[in-house]
């Protein structure tokens, strides 16, 4: 047998550079936890950002009926255009009028919002360039970018100012290789909602430095009373904005994987190249599910406002309840969110000397109290943890009460008394006895 064309005597099949360099930080941390829950207490996961997990939040009948009707259409069974069916893109354009002047030509349908994020990162940044991501922030950006050789640079959010952007730090991170600024509003994991003045400040920085914005607005309109959602694209005078959103959170159907990109480019700065680039990238999966695309116009048009109002009211009440309960936990500082589905909680780790970091704190909480919260390192933010607010009220209350017990059992007594003296935690007969003795 001829030996020509043989590369080697041994098999050598390796994963690609993209595969080797792709890591999901949250999945990695969660899957490497080895601790077992306390078998005497029901396990409560406050970690999963899926509003359907517990079955207490469901889409309205109008959404389900739209999909039932779509099933009967022969046009819902075949391939669609890579950018999405025209009628579905027109429906998204109409639904997104609050973002500015939007037409169907500005819309690309995607397989969920994470796919939309993948496309906009891929179209704007090359290997060796960087994108600016908020810290704390949703780590899908790191997962999607690093495999492509795109560098993640972080800009700080300010926990003492409702997680507003540290504007000086943001501008200091920009260099000649910066391809885009990521703005997550409302925020995962912080639950912050930025007002118009703050959004204009961010736009001013982007404009001065000629950097486009990727707007992650999957939680658009998901805001609590006293706050107002404003799409950053609606304020931009010259900065190109690629907005990513979808059905996932607001309509409570994350598994349906229907998201979209909306291109906002008032002065044609992106030109044909970026639009064509997004269209080219969309052909890699030939568009999202046509079944859901065909249902999309009815979903967006007929879902009643009362449904959205009820869901937001429930989550806002959950946030208020969790906040009040956790104020009783010595060594913790909950930060009341303004929207979305999450709350960030500071762990004053120096108050718990037996733990070196928040990961050890969270692990012990699982083994003793059977409550799991996402540790801050999942968001590149140590000494914090995130809880999800979409769980049933009784379960969330029980989880918070267990957190209070855990903190009382593990906090350094001296630190506990300082918190009592400073009116950080309430005085009880129990705490008076401990501190007096």
TrEMBL record:
Q: Per the record's keyword annotation, is Transferase included, yes or no? A: yes
This enzyme catalyses:
L-tyrosine + 2-oxoglutarate = 3-(4-hydroxyphenyl)pyruvate + L-glutamate
* Catalytic class of the enzyme: transferase
> Which superkingdom does the taxonomy of this entry point to?
Eukaryota
Give the matching Gene3D superfamilies.
Answer: Aspartate Aminotransferase, domain 1, Type I PLP-dependent aspartate aminotransferase-like (Major domain)
Identify the residues that the record assigns to the Aminotransferase class I/classII large domain, covering every copy.
Answer: 43-403
* Positions of modified residues (N6-(pyridoxal phosphate)lysine): 249
| PROSITE patterns to which the protein is assigned, alphabetical | AA_TRANSFER_CLASS_1
The family annotation for this protein states:
Belongs to the class-I pyridoxal-phosphate-dependent aminotransferase family.
Q: Under what name is this protein listed?
A: Tyrosine aminotransferase
**Gene source species:** Papilio xuthus (Asian swallowtail butterfly)
Lineage runs: Eukaryota, Metazoa, Ecdysozoa, Arthropoda, Hexapoda
